[in-house]
């Protein structure tokens, strides 16, 4: 299982997931840079993702939806802030309607994904920061830890393919 640690802090308004993969940094980075690979690991296994727009450059927009087992679409967006390939990228992440307009009553997180070479492969640290403890608690109650962990744990299979 790639996920090695999960921490959340209502005081610091953060959720941090750490994972390790037996692959070079550039290979793990490529999963996030290529929307077709990202579709294979974004979201839990029972909610496959489809990336409609994917521009992993500063100021770029990424729009996607996940499809539930019942066929419902759950849409989201990223607004890319910084990219330091293959070390780190930052982005805002939020929920969207079916036209990819942000849903104003849903939490938005500021995310930093950091890729680091370690003995035997790559460590990725996924940090999400929220604007309030209530926003963080809302996504925790929605199952973000379980969903994100299940999604990240799919990366090993993709790397082995």
TrEMBL record:
<dbReference type="InterPro" id="IPR013538">
    <property type="entry name" value="ASHA1/2-like_C"/>
</dbReference>
<dbReference type="InterPro" id="IPR023393">
    <property type="entry name" value="START-like_dom_sf"/>
</dbReference>
<protein>
    <submittedName>
        <fullName>Uncharacterized conserved protein YndB, AHSA1/START domain</fullName>
    </submittedName>
</protein>
<feature type="domain" description="Activator of Hsp90 ATPase homologue 1/2-like C-terminal">
    <location>
        <begin position="23"/>
        <end position="159"/>
    </location>
</feature>
<dbReference type="Pfam" id="PF08327">
    <property type="entry name" value="AHSA1"/>
</dbReference>
<comment type="similarity">
    <text>Belongs to the AHA1 family.</text>
</comment>
């Amino acid at each position: 299982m790639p996920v090695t640690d999960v921490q959340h802090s209502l005081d610091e308004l953060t959720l941090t997931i750490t994972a390790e993969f037996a692959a070079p940094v550039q290979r793990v980075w490529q999963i996030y840079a290529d929307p077709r690979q990202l579709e294979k690991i974004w979201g839990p296994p029972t909610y496959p993702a489809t990336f409609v727009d994917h521009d992993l450059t500063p100021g770029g927009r990424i729009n996607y939806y996940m499809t539930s087992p019942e066929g419902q679409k759950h849409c989201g967006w990223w607004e890319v802030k910084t990219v330091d390939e293959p070390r780190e990228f930052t982005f805002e992440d939020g929920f969207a309607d079916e036209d990819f307009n942000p849903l104003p009553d849903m939490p938005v997180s500021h995310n930093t994904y950091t890729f680091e070479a370690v003995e035997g492969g790559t460590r990725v640290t996924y940090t999400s920061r929220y604007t309030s403890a209530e926003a963080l608690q809302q996504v925790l109650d929605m199952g973000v830890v379980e969903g994100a962990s299940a999604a990240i744990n799919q990366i090993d299979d993709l790397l082995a393919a």
